[in-house]
Specification:
CATH topology: TIM Barrel
Strand order of the largest sheet: 1-2-3-4-5-6-7-8
Helix content: 40-55%
Number of strands: 8
Structural class: alpha/beta
CATH architecture: Alpha-Beta Barrel
Number of domains: 1
Largest sheet: 8 strands, parallel, barrel
Radius of gyration: 20 Å
CATH class: Alpha Beta
């Protein structure tokens, strides 16, 4: 049976719901946080900077990533330096390209070598991993976020690609590989087993940690009881 205790990978909470972030902050299993503009919009965040400062009053001892939201590289760079200045534990998420498919690698390199802790996001290919690692190598501590869940959504097994990505970043001690967008709790163990440094997951995935190691016979019985009780409470008749 697998156990949460055996995990070497760092668990990050992915989201922008303030209540969930505060709850995760109290959980010693959670080693950091990630956000993005889509999650913020879904959570109803109206003022980006105000929200970030509210969160940073609480999240002071663990890394947290905030993303730029420009499409021009000069504006990305300006935003990145501003965001990095909010707190020492802040990483700045930079998309691997802009919306016109133009690579952000040169910007990533400048930022990393100016002392900005960069989290390069929306990566889905090994070539992107290689280019990103080369740009970050020797710079400030950084994260390479590969969206393994989105790879899986295309019908491809992300595990072989993530295993190769580990090999790409392993020569660079300042770079951590992050498994992003997991779809199920099993992905945490898959990411751990291939040697990823971090996995970030939403509350819906992290909430399943309590079932790790659960006896399957007992879990089967719980499932049967759930179906029975729901049918009974619904008053269904045949």
């Amino acid at each position: 049976m697998r156990s949460v205790v055996e995990l070497k990978i760092k668990l990050f909470a992915d989201g922008a719901d303030k209540a969930q972030i505060l709850q995760a902050q109290a959980n010693p299993l959670i080693r950091g946080f990630t956000t993005n503009p889509t999650l913020m919009r879904a959570a109803g965040v109206k003022n980006y900077e105000e929200f970030a400062h509210e969160i940073l009053k609480v999240v002071t001892d663990r890394p947290i990533s905030f993303e730029v939201f420009a499409d021009e590289f000069d504006e990305m760079e300006r935003q990145a330096h501003k965001i990095a200045g909010w707190a020492e534990n802040v990483y700045v998420k930079i998309p691997v390209t802009n919306t016109r498919r133009e690579s952000s690698i040169k910007l990533v390199h400048r930022l990393a070598y100016s002392g900005v802790r960069v989290n390069v996001t929306a990566i889905l290919t090994l070539d992107q991993v290689r280019d990103t690692a080369a740009a970050l190598a020797g710079g400030a501590p950084s994260v390479v976020s590969v969206f393994a869940g989105r790879i899986a959504d295309t019908g491809q097994d992300p595990v072989p690609l993530m295993a190769e990505a580990v090999k790409v970043v392993s020569p660079h001690p300042g770079i951590e590989l992050l498994w992003a967008s997991p779809r199920e709790l099993l992905n945490i163990f898959q990411a751990n087993d291939v040697g990823c440094h971090i996995i970030t997951a939403t509350d819906s995935v992290l909430g399943k940690l309590k079932t790790v190691g659960k006896n399957l016979d007992e879990y089967s019985l719980e499932t049967v009881r759930m179906f029975y009780n729901d049918a009974a409470h619904s008053g269904y008749q045949l």
